[in-house]
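request received
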Amino acid sequence: EPEVTQTPSHQVTQMGQEVILRCVPISNHLYFYWYRQILGQKVEFLVSFYNNEISEKSEIFDDQFSVERPDGSNFTLKIRSTKLEDSAMYFCASSTQDRDGSPLHFGNGTRLTVT
Amino acid sequence: GENVEQHPSTLSVQEGDSAVIKCTYSDSASNYFPWYKQELGKRPQLIIDIRSNVGEKKDQRIAVTLNKTAKHFSLHITETQPEDSAVYFCAASPPRYSGGGADGLTFGKGTHLIIQP
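response:
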């Protein structure tokens, strides 16, 4: 069964540094997402991406965040100047085009630790 | 925006008994309600989902019910087993309209299900 893959599995960075989290969605999926989960808390929506542009973003997704699909397979999340509170598990997800809702397939996540 | 409330936050049941987790949502336009199971340190995995044109859906020991009028939906697990121990998240999503748009899921806070041997 095809899977969403994410790299790296764990990223440690210093406060103020830039990080790029990488994702390869399932190949025939058209919708891409980033979610984050602070340890022990719920999964929170960050941003959705369709047709090479952001479709929707949450309040969490402020100017320090950006997403990009640099080629036909990768989907990246960039955090420009990391803060301590950015420490979390970041999940990429993808889904097919389904007007009435379709399952999200999550990757295994990148654990970001900001020190 | 959508707001999803989930109860209880922790549920402990004896192996073999049933477990019920309940969620309410606020946006009457939401029409897609998935449930995810997350084991410690792993990704959320879809276990069952329901759309608003259906009141109940069952898959072996797992069932989901939806009450659109009351805006609540529930997960039922029967004959619980140790491997059912995990955190379960409900979620809700409004419809996507033609022409694109990818609305994000709004998740509940999760229920930590503990199966006692």
